[in-house]
Design a protein that fits this description.
Blueprint: H1 2-54
């Protein structure tokens, strides 16, 4: 009986570890996406300014 209870406790611990790894991975991917969007936002801003200065986009 001891080995069955010990195995169940280990399996529950492995499930928590797997969920924690998924959360860490999701946070990392969100961080990378935010960094990518920051670059895209600056690119859009620069293109908007360039189109304004050249007269292609009259405000």
């Amino acid at each position: 009986m001891q080995t069955i209870q010990g195995h169940a406790a280990t399996a529950a611990h492995d499930g928590r570890l797997f969920r924690a790894a998924l959360v860490v991975g999701a946070v990392f991917l969100l961080w990378r996406a935010a960094r990518g969007l920051k670059g895209a936002a600056w690119s859009a801003f620069a293109l908007a300014l360039a189109s304004r200065w050249t007269g292609l986009w009259p405000w």
